[in-house]
Known about the structure:
The chain is α+β, with helices and mostly antiparallel strands. The chain has a domain at 38-84 and 99-136: Immunoglobulin-like. Helices cover 13% and strands 32% of the residues. The chain contains one helix and seven strands; from the N terminus they run H-E-E-E-E-E-E-E. It has one helix spanning 11-29; strands at residues 43-47, 51-57, 66-71, 74-81, 100-107, 118-122, 125-131. Strands 1-2-7-6 form a four-stranded antiparallel beta sheet, with no helix packed on it. Strands 3-4-5 form a three-stranded antiparallel beta sheet, with no helix packed on it. It is elongated. The model is unreliable at 1-10 and 31-36 (pLDDT under 50).
Amino acid sequence: xxxxxxxxxxxxxxxxxxxxxxxxxxxxxxxxxxxxxxxxxxxxxxxxxxxxxxxxxxxxxxxxxxxxxxxxxxxxxxxxxxxxxxxxxxxxxxxxxxxxxxxxxxxxxxxxxxxxxxxxxxxxxxxxxxxxxxxxxxxxxxxxx
Length: 145
């Protein structure tokens, strides 16, 4: 019996998409106005009832090049992304990875406990946990007779 691998239903559509867009992307990629423009690495933000979690992809960044600050209800992340040297005698054909300094600020939906903020950097991923301030937490109020 012949072993048949199951193909994804989407595979033909991906192939068609790549066939149609690759030549156009190659052509437009040579024109500066059509090159991808990124201001900063992508950030994921999750809001829970009592905390916010953030995740930032920063591959190749050194820990000492990351700066995180909190002022009032605004969290700011600053970073320097290293430039990759182009091999001698080569010309860039496509350059999508960003480099240089950037900063990004986030307005937080509630006050956070600044003493309990945690930030970790592992395998190129910056993870930040921002717990809600105790004063912002709901509390039960007892009623006296």
